[in-house]
Amino acid sequence: MAHALTQEDVLNFFDEIKELYKETDLKFKETDRRFQKTDRLIRETRKAIGELGNRLGEFVEEMVRPAVVRLFRERGIDVHEVHGDVVAIRDEESMEIDLLVVDNTDVIAVECKSHLSTSNVNEHIERLERFKRMFSRYADMRVMSAVSAI
């Protein structure tokens, strides 16, 4: 036997639905707030990791700088200049060299890494193919390269 719903039953049912909707809406808002907080924390963490990576790269360069002078002088390259974070910009293209070691006839492009991989070496080799064009002041010099890592 079916039970007939009264108007009061229907109104109570809609009131319950409204309350459930309010609770659901509050839960969605809380979830959204938590997602926003999580997203902000992820962005801050990425930024901090990036800054740490940059600082580690600077540390590697500072450790390598005096060593390359000694190392290359021991091999007969009379180092006169060492430049850090050298950037060349030509047309729409740019190139960065971590350390540039220079004497009268040679220039050595040194890539410094905190962790070294084969792809780092391959990228450095590819970069050197553009070196004389990008750093035209060294076009008449012998170009060598080195890769260093901790």
Description:
- The chain has 150 residues and is of the alpha+beta class.
- Helices cover 55% and strands 24% of the residues.
- It contains three helices and four strands.
- Strand 1 (81-90) and strand 2 form a beta hairpin.
- The longest helix is centred in the N-terminal third of the chain and has 68 residues, at 7-74.
- The chain starts with 6 loop residues before the first helix and ends with a strand.
Q: What labels describe this entry?
A:
single chain, 150 residues, alpha+beta, four-stranded mixed beta sheet, 55% helix, 24% strand
| Rg calc | 31 Å
Listing every helix as H and every strand as E from the N terminus to the C terminus, the arrangement reads HEEEHHE
Low-confidence segments, given as residue ranges, are none
Number of strands: 4
- Shape, per Cα inertia axes: rod-shaped
The separation of the N and C termini measures: 83 Å
User: Which sheet architecture does the biggest sheet show?
Assistant: 4 strands, mixed
Give the strand line-up of the largest sheet: 1-2-3-4
The percent range for helix content is 55-70%
